[in-house]
Amino acid sequence: MKSILVYGAGGHAKVVIDVIEKAGIYRIAGLLDGNKPVGTNAYGYSVLGDESYIHSDDNIHGIIVAIGDNWLRAKIVHAIRAIKPECVFITAIHPQATVARGAVIGEGTVLMAGAVVNSDTIIGSHCVLNTISSVDHDSRLDDYVTMAPHAATGGGVRIESYCTISIGASLIHSVTVHEHTVIGAGATVLSAIESYSVAYGTPARVVRKREAGERYL
Ligand SMILES: CC(C)(COP(=O)(O)OP(=O)(O)OC[C@H]1O[C@@H](n2cnc3c(N)ncnc32)[C@H](O)[C@@H]1OP(=O)(O)O)[C@@H](O)C(=O)NCCC(=O)NCCS
User: Fold this and answer.
1) How high is the pLDDT of residue 58?
2) C-alpha pair distances (Å), 32 with each of 27, 41, 78, 120, 151
3) Ligand 1 centroid, distance to 198 Cα (angstroms)
């Protein structure tokens, strides 16, 4: 079994670790985290160092960045790429997730228990499809998108990079959510939502603008 590292040691990382263990494809050699002392134990694994550690271990096949916030996850991915451009970012797909025929899952993306990616849908890199979220047929998620638990889309939607569709929110078929937008918990999106916005309600309306990287969790 090939060895991998998990970047992150928080709540989201715990769930990603569980997905990797259940999938049984990779062995987790340890965790990386810039904010926790070396040796910290998280969910049975030790923190080995920060991203610079990837230079000191030639036996590592790949890594997954298990940081829930889209912007912070991207920062870590970019930092790792700067240190080791050839680094492999693995995907983590729970055995109870479903990926339909024709669907494509980008590198570094995680599908948690019950996630569904339906026919011919393309999921970008470093996305998070959280517990029981679903993206229906012929849709497209760009990179660094999060679908929170129970978020769902109809077919033919487009969700641009750095968007979050919060817990229980729904998108009807064929709508677009433009980049860096957060759709709030429980919202129902019936038409396109502009970029750099926070929108919620039924039907979802933009309630304010947001900056790239603004915290939402
Ligand atoms: C959309 C969201 C980011 C908005 O955060 P925010 O702009 O900081 O909003 P606030 O918490 O300051 O609330 C402002 C007002 O909007 C209301 N509000 C916030 N989110 C709402 C939502 N999703 N639907 C309806 N009303 C909402 C609040 O009740 C509050 O109303 P009030 O002024 O009458 O008291 C946040 O509410 C949300 O939905 N987060 C998603 C969390 C999630 O999915 N977590 C799981 C991650 S795995």
Assistant:
1) 79
2) 15, 11, 15, 34, 29
3) 9
Protein residues whose CB sits closer than 6 Å to any atom of ligand 1: 130, 148-149, 166-167, 182, 184-187, 198, 200-201, 216-217
Are 21 and 43 within one domain? yes
The number of folded domains in the chain is: 2
Question: Final residue of a domain: which of 32, 63, 83?
Answer: 83
Range of the domain at 44: 2-83
Q: Which atom, in ligand 1's list, is nearest to the CA of 186?
A: 23
Q: Give the residue from 173, 124, 138, 114 showing the smallest Cα distance to 188.
A: 173
The whole-number pLDDT of residue 148 equals 98
Parts of the chain with a pLDDT under 50? none
* Closest ligand 1 atom number to CA of residue 68: 48
Tokens 């993306």 correspond to 109
Residue 130 CA: nearest ligand 1 atom is 48
Domain boundary among 62, 83, 104: 83
Mean pLDDT, the chain, whole residue set: 97
Instruction: Report the distance separating Cα 183 and Cα 197, nearest Å.
Output: 8
Residues 98 and 200 in one domain: yes
Predicted local confidence at residue 203, as pLDDT: 98
Q: Is residue 112 part of a domain?
A: yes
**Residue 185 C-alpha to ligand 1 middle, in angstroms?**
7
